[in-house]
Design brief:
single chain, three-stranded mixed β-sheet, 3 strands
Amino acid sequence: MERRLRFSQAEKFSQTYFYTQDPFQASLSSGLAAKIDGLIFKVCLTLGKWPKNSRNLRIVILKDGKQVQQRHLVFQPFQAAGPSWFGYGRMEAFYEARSHTIFLSLEDLHAGILAHELVHFVLCQSYVVPPPASAQEDWARYVESSLD
């Protein structure tokens, strides 16, 4: 995951994203957290918004889009339709606002997907009442496409 993100550390953010008891993984997480900070900084600059609430962001990395879809069904059990309603579909990532958590598929991960989900986090933390989902999606797609 760290190799797929090419952002440097930003001074504005310094959150803890990962917890692991494995010493090898713990040694890697600080470099990855710095890159995520850099990506959040880029997202905030692009949006012109900075999180006002000091909520901790959690990132859960799952094996693939099928596991992400299954997690999504836990939070939104009746939102999906068709075969994915039974948990057979795929989803690259999603942001769950109540728990301030991004769920990511490691198999599908790239900086654009993470930036897309970070937009939801930043917008939800920047306003007392977050913008409607459709407006958030428009901004998220814009930021994702402008990362080059």
